[in-house]
Amino acid sequence: MGEPLFIDLETSGLEVPPAVILQIGAVYKDKTFNQLVIPNHVDWAFASPKALEVNGLTLEKLHAGGVKPEQAFSAFINWLLEHDITAKTAFYVGQNPGFDQKFLSYFMGEVLAFVDFPTITVDVRELYTEALQRKVLTTNGSNYRSGENISRALGLPPETYPHDALAGARAAAQNYFALMKLLGA
Q: How many angstroms separate the CA atoms of 37 and 84, rounded?
């Protein structure tokens, strides 16, 4: 199955399109990838104020540290290739990987298929549910389906607010490893 590849995205909204990727964060073994993405003016005009509140991204911040989408996506592909991250060497872990996969597929689908991007996916939220069902973890009855709340239930530091893609990938990693230990895997 390979090694876990943790990915998190910050986006300009919930639905692609019109939402776009604003930041890509990834962790693989001891390697990290972190890139802000500058949207074009039309895409920015459709940005959700709620999404921007959650991730704290502004157009000024994106211009100060970001690159155009094609440069960001190319850099991410090069990072995957540089570290030999393929379906043979890795599997994709996230705290809601289906959401991020929608965006990755929409913006980079053909290229990701060409580089043999990992197709096996593990959702940390499902591992958390399994831990609850197996009674190796208990809660106080609160909704712990968000990454921050899963971290709290595990006694780990939650992802910072506003959200950051690399911090989100790191939080997914800490939650994944803690849950795997609880599950005896």
A: 23
Nearest to 125 by CA among 140, 156, 146, 142: 146
| Single pTM value for the model | 0.94
How many Å apart are CA 66 and CA 72, to the nearest integer?
A: 8
Instruction: List pLDDT tens digits, range 99-155.
Output: 999 999 999 999 999 999 999 999 999 999 899 888 887 775 555 567 788 888 888
Complete domains list, the chain, with CATH: 3-122 (3.30.420.10), 124-182 (no CATH)
Which amino acid, 22? Answer: L
Q: How confident is the model at residue 160 (pLDDT cuts 50, 70, 90)?
A: confident
Sheet holding 66-67, edge to edge: 66-67, 31-37, 21-28, 3-11, 90-94, 121-123
Task: Tally DSSP H helices, then E strands, for the chain.
Answer: 8, 6
Residue-wise over 113-145: b if at least 16 C-beta within 10 A, else e? eeeebbeeebbbbebbbebeeeeebeeeeeebe
